[in-house]
Amino acid sequence: MDQLCIVTTGGTIDKIYFDDKSDYQIGEPQIGRILDELGVQFGYRVIPILRKDSLHLNDGDRELVRATIAAQDTRHVLVTHGTDSMVATARVLESIPDKTIVLTGALNPARFHGSDAEFNIGTAVGAVQALPPGVYIAMNGRIWDPRHVRKNVSANRFEAA
Where along the chain is substrate bound (predicted)? Predict the structure, then answer.
């Protein structure tokens, strides 16, 4: 794998909660800290482009993500993204040729004990290295085709669509 390019957009994975009323902000991207703590043996570069809950992403934001990824020289791209609109962004990214792009996120903030963030990031890192060019979603221990997956909000998981 050439250097891994990581594009961050915000989402639950980077949320910071302030009080018991669930008031939050999107903080600094957590993926670099997580990869450093895990002692990964590959080079990576983090490009933080948005700090939004994915419910607030719009077509312009998705185009910014697409253009940012398309402009990178690297073939391997990991995107951290909020789970609520991850599928919509993945579908926009399908127009980018010759890159393996894996989107991942978390159902609980990375700062929380027991968060699924590290597991999802690990799954995504393995997937981005092993899969052929295309766009994929890595969530809940599985690799999903964005055209055949949806987030089940009531069950708080991804499943076949």
Answer: 54, 83-84
